[in-house]
Amino acid sequence: MADGSDQRALQYEQTLMYGRYTQELGVYAKEEAARLRESGPRRSVSEQSRSLDLLEYKGRCAKCRICTVRCQKFLISRVGEDWIFLILLGLLMALVSWVVDFCIAICLQAQNWMYGGLDSNVFLQYLAWVTYPVVLITFSAGFTQILAPQAVGSGIPEMKTILRGVVLKEYLTFKTFVAKVIGLTCALGSGMPLGKEGPFVHIASLCAALLSKFMSLFGGIYENESRNIEMLAAACAVGVGCCFAAPIGGVLFSIEVTSTFFAVRNYWRGFFAATFSAFIFRVLAVWNRDEETITALFKTRFRLDFPFDLQELPAFAVIGIASGFGGALFVYLNRLIVQFMRKQKTINKFLMKKRLLYPALVTLLISTLTFPPGFGQFMAGKLTQKESLVTLLDNRTWAKQGIAEEFDYIGHAQAWKHPQVNVFVTLVLFIVMKFWMSALATTIPVPCGAFMPVFVIGAAFGRLVGESMAAWFPDGIHADGFIYPIVPGGYAVVGAAALSGAVTHTVSTAVIVFELTGQISHILPVMIAVILANAVAQSLQPSLYDSIIRIKKLPYLPELGWGHHEKYNIRVEDIMVRDVRYITLNCCYRDLHNVLTSGHLKTLALVETAESMILLGSIERAQLQSLLSQQLSRSRRLEYIRERAAAEKKRLSVVSNSDSDDGRQRASQEVRFQISTEESSFSPTRPAGQKPLKPALKRPSVVERPTELPTSPHDHSSIALKNLFCSSPDAEALEDDDVEDDMTLREIAEWEEKQLDEQVDFSTCKIDPAPFQLVERTSLHKTHTIFSLLGLDHAYVTSIGRLIGVVSLKELRKAIEGSVTVKGVKVRPPLASFRDSGTSSSETEATELHKLWDRHKSVSLPGDRTPSESDEKSQ
Amino acid sequence: MADGSDQRALQYEQTLMYGRYTQELGVYAKEEAARLRESGPRRSVSEQSRSLDLLEYKGRCAKCRICTVRCQKFLISRVGEDWIFLILLGLLMALVSWVVDFCIAICLQAQNWMYGGLDSNVFLQYLAWVTYPVVLITFSAGFTQILAPQAVGSGIPEMKTILRGVVLKEYLTFKTFVAKVIGLTCALGSGMPLGKEGPFVHIASLCAALLSKFMSLFGGIYENESRNIEMLAAACAVGVGCCFAAPIGGVLFSIEVTSTFFAVRNYWRGFFAATFSAFIFRVLAVWNRDEETITALFKTRFRLDFPFDLQELPAFAVIGIASGFGGALFVYLNRLIVQFMRKQKTINKFLMKKRLLYPALVTLLISTLTFPPGFGQFMAGKLTQKESLVTLLDNRTWAKQGIAEEFDYIGHAQAWKHPQVNVFVTLVLFIVMKFWMSALATTIPVPCGAFMPVFVIGAAFGRLVGESMAAWFPDGIHADGFIYPIVPGGYAVVGAAALSGAVTHTVSTAVIVFELTGQISHILPVMIAVILANAVAQSLQPSLYDSIIRIKKLPYLPELGWGHHEKYNIRVEDIMVRDVRYITLNCCYRDLHNVLTSGHLKTLALVETAESMILLGSIERAQLQSLLSQQLSRSRRLEYIRERAAAEKKRLSVVSNSDSDDGRQRASQEVRFQISTEESSFSPTRPAGQKPLKPALKRPSVVERPTELPTSPHDHSSIALKNLFCSSPDAEALEDDDVEDDMTLREIAEWEEKQLDEQVDFSTCKIDPAPFQLVERTSLHKTHTIFSLLGLDHAYVTSIGRLIGVVSLKELRKAIEGSVTVKGVKVRPPLASFRDSGTSSSETEATELHKLWDRHKSVSLPGDRTPSESDEKSQ
């Protein structure tokens, strides 16, 4: 019982805090946790005494039991700690990552085995080569489609949106988890050029969400929005970390990709969880005898003493710039394909009907082209993604060294050698083909990312440049003394970091490649190339994730780009919605009803009067709905009936000297009176409006359920209205069974009409007295900063206390994306803000102030009204 | 002239925006920049035509000149770009870093040479060994003391405070730069265990500040707070980056050490500048023939194929935990020494008199102990910091390998070998001695950091553990197949990262060691050790920088620690200052005068009336001061004299029928009249307040300056209005020289007294209509978040629009540090917030609302007052 009421108190608090910064919730949660912790020892004392009783009875066996109980208690008390959560998350994700990798490897081996076993017949070989991925991808697409369509795609754009504070439904459920893991395994097992990183960010977040739900079953843990978001941010780091065994790169990449403002105090969480996860992930490989000890995933063995020459730097810079253009092209191509598919209505319609056809066709096309005896021989089609990457990062040089020496292609590197064509041609073909294939493959509706394919293409491009350099300078560039031949593998590392950095608009891919290769010797070339690639790509295209956010139309607030100066001239007054839904302090229930039925905002502004428009606070929609439902509740009506009956009796006994209208009037007044009396008798210390707690005591869950929207109707459907609101008829029937509900429908309607005309009593209503306010001349830039910093959903625009508009995320997004500037918004000329900032705005401000001043004067000195009126006229 | 007025306009804008979020300033700056850019082409056209004229005169030579002019113009137009600034900053810092390193190396060589040359006489040797550092340190201390005492110490605490938005005077001047660079060079040249990192963060920030000042001379660049802070954040990254040639670690370390919330959009700046700086720093080494190519600063050569065994991980974890304790101890010891010196009044007094004595004594003590033929032989005293680190990170094992094999100590490693004592003893002595020496040395008032000494101690500790492990497992731990001997150098890397991470409370030291050593193979051990060390150290002590912030009492807002649950129960109402300085809309100049003379706040609250206390906005102190000074200005007095003279004349000509008091009264009224007449005669179409446009017409560029509020002229204050606008005294002096200032002092005093009794006219005053507001029940946690996020200095506490208090950084800091909880603040019991949140708080809110409601009712419907009063009684 106590728990229930506490929970209620917490939820009540949360309701109260709604519309303020989410940070607040964390505080309450911590308090709650502190309270739980405090109550913990108390409980344990009683249990201890109980266990002591047990001891007397049963001796040694009981001792064990006590020990178990204590251990259990200790575990439960610790279970709420962040670090336990993070360890569990890391462990779980490492296991998931390892299992997925293992399954993918088996799938790929199976394909290879089938392909290898059928080498007698090329056609059968082709069939096997093609059918296998088609089946896998089709299954993946179908499975995901049926179980959880939210699992489709990368997941990073969605996580970015969720971390922004937007609630995306069904994105963090168990179903999605299953669909994502199985779908991803099948998709990657097919050998298509798809990645694992993005989905793993999503899977890790799913894990975190599910884990915190699971742990809340144990008690001791608290659930709240702020903590969840912190944990999700850590989970994103874990996702990248356990995917590449790159803890540092994972943390940085996840910060760059998902956050706008980053709280440094959450830094350790990501590092802790990602390190643990990466550690377990690599330990699993050691235990499985894949590796002798913990090393990097794609270990390179470049020489340490002279990694590269200073004079090679221009080549690295070229890789960076070219990768920048390439990255932008990739994002553009990817978007183009999606948009093309959407625009072509006939294709679209057809594909909508046969949803699995598109994946199958794309897979067929790609696998046909990579068929090793066919075109695939020219582009190392035999190699899986991992194998290509390993060969590309090889520290030996493929091109001819000196005159006689030729590199003997052993192992997988053989695939790059073709008897007829040069290795350069193979590389170029690989890059070109893989480029469009990856852009195409990532549009398939299966769980998949684009990071790894892009990474491989980048490595191939780097390798191409490196091999060219090696061919050009066979003895290296370094002039004096030793010969240091050029290492094309180093170029591949640089290219991989640069292209993936350009596509995702991140710098931390540099760190990821160091962690992936286990060598940091190329740090400066990598950093230079990544920065150049970013500079180029960011000026041409949005990042791949932002592009997907736009395509999917997710509710995310885009970043203000560099140098969008025109944005700085837009003010809040240009973009705000002037037609604000508000309620006044002296409104009646009918107004409330009208406002509730006409709008969909979660909170409503409360102003002093419709004339003054002084903003007093904001009220949650649910609060108002409960106010309204209380006013029209059955219990109040029964109360009324009882009163009427009493009045009837009175009238029968005493001669009435008033007419019926007057009597009814008085009756309703008495009703009001009596209710407050009854309430005070029920709970004398509480104010009048706490009545909803009464039924809540019987069924705690009902109260917490947000009462449904009154879908609507206008004035005459008040019965329907009433029925909607009074959602617990049984409970009230029990209470009020002494009074007979003998009112006819017409009478009820009449009574409700009367109730609606009463003035609203806000005293029982939770009002947020400080909703976020902006002034009309706040710039778009500042508004954007405040919205991103505080994770706001909407803000009221006031002018010296007067509510004049409201800005929500939607308006802001439109303004930033520029879609509004064309249509509706008045874009100021660049100099306007300087020209009128001193005059018009201050004039309005001053005017407002004067009005207030005058009003104030007129209130305090009613005789002085004339000058203020003349003032007003003069304006 | 035009530039001046523009600057004035910008400054005016900035003044106007003061008290809002600093982001706003950035916007204005960008607008300003856009404006400047726009005006650029115009200017260039005229210059082009001028150069074309030149062409006709002079032919070919002029062509060159045009070309030069164009290039110059292009450069100037680009000079405002961020990336140019960052490149210059990186270049400059790399040069500074390299030159400082070079000088330090020469200093140390000189000492070595002196010490080596005198090997015939031990006493002379000792004198040379000791005198040299004493002289250098004393010079450094004296020089810094005289030139700029702000240059003393690390600089990171100060930068942390400055980046928080607090302006520290004199910390970013050229004097400080010179003092810091020269002082640091001398201090490090002495061979004391001091570091370079902290000072370099400060030097880089100084560079950035000076550079942006310098570049603003060229024009095209804009100066503003928001941009400066972004640039300072980048500069901190550059400081670390060019100090260790560690761009990534530099960026991360500077973020961890200086920021609370980090804007991801600024990420690239740090990376860009730090990479460039590190690149140039290493290129300089290549050009100086120190290195063959760009490599890491302390390159290690650990084996790549099997860096460490899985079973070695417990040893790494032990290093981490021990380093955590060690780090906390170091911070504690450092603070203890400072506090001891401060508390001992006799010592303190003596040292204050002889400021250079303390540095000299400390240096004498430390250098005596490290004297190689003396005690120094047991602790490798001969080695400089750099040499020790190089030997400690060596990949060979010092302890006995197997039975017969002994490592031959060559080069600097010889210093670790002592014929009598074991290498373990040497290491232990080194660690213990250096530990307290470093803690002591960092208290010397010279520019110095503690990172590097701590790093070296950590490396030594790691080496000790590594050597022990190597002695314990001579054949390595790995069971099957190959023998992989243990690499103690890897342990040294782990130890260095862990201890420096523990002292600074950062995780990014891990990245720094990878970049410093050029090897990332030990990533998992390093990460595990660093995280463990952080966990231990953070639970015991603040970071070294926070400790210094506390010692120096810098105005920094401390972080809310983990698990300080009692903090969550403090509300704003518990810590706010209830006695707010405010001014009312209808106050007179005397009130203004009183408020201004009694308080020191930079902004003052403006409320409706002292009764209602409705917060209308905040006004800057300077604005009010100018209001007051205008009211009492000489020109207004002369105006008054002229008027009086005119009235006198009138009285002489016309027979007066009123007494003198009345006449004076009327005279002042006539003054008002005549002024307004004069104004309207001058510009009949314009409202009264636009007079400043008159001088503006002479200087066209002034028009852009935001003209003061023209304001609907107010009832009683038109005099003030007029005078406010005529703010150019020289112009008026010309105008008013016809009047003789014949008032006596007594008359002036009388006149001023009268002026002070007039009501203030705020219409010409810039009012910030939306100062930051909190509600009384906002928790400390939330307040802290908002203050850190928005960089606030103070916030008003309101309750339904009524001003009830103010919270500034000071109160917040006190509350967080807990110093107030003991004395004055009522700390709520843990459950209080739950108990009363549902009742009392809502009650107060409701009461407030009711009051407002009633007030509102009484205003609109005076007849309805009775029921509302009864309502109030019923509560």
TrEMBL record, chains A, B:
One Pfam family, please name it: Voltage_CLC
Keyword annotations of the record: CBS domain, Cell membrane, Cell projection, Chloride, Chloride channel, Ion channel, Ion transport, Membrane, Phosphoprotein, Postsynaptic cell membrane, Repeat, Synapse, Transmembrane, Transmembrane helix, Transport, Voltage-gated channel
Q: Where are the transmembrane segments?
A: 83-111, 123-143, 200-219, 231-255, 267-287, 313-335, 356-375, 421-437, 444-462, 482-503, 510-533
MF terms in GO: voltage-gated chloride channel activity
Its recorded reaction(s) are: thiocyanate(in) = thiocyanate(out)
Cellular localization per UniProt: Basolateral cell membrane; Cell projection, Axon; Cell projection, Dendritic spine membrane
> Region labeled Disordered — which residues?
651-714, 831-875
Stretches of Basic and acidic residues bias are at 701-714, 847-857, 866-875
Report if keyword Ligase is assigned. no
Q: What topology does it adopt in the membrane?
A: Multi-pass membrane protein
The UniProt record lists the keyword Hydrolase: no
Please list which residues make up the signal peptide: none
Q: Which GO terms describe its cellular component?
A: axon; basolateral plasma membrane; chloride channel complex; dendritic spine membrane
Feature: compositional bias, Polar residues: 674-684
Q: What is its main location?
A: membrane
Recorded family membership = Belongs to the chloride channel (TC 2.A.49) family. ClC-2/CLCN2 subfamily.
What binding partners and quaternary form does the record give?
Answer: Homodimer. Interacts with auxiliary subunit HEPACAM.
From the Swiss-Prot or TrEMBL record, give the protein name.
Chloride channel protein 2
- Organism, scientific name: Kryptolebias marmoratus (Mangrove killifish)
Per the UniProt record, the lineage of the source organism begins with: Eukaryota, Metazoa, Chordata, Craniata, Vertebrata
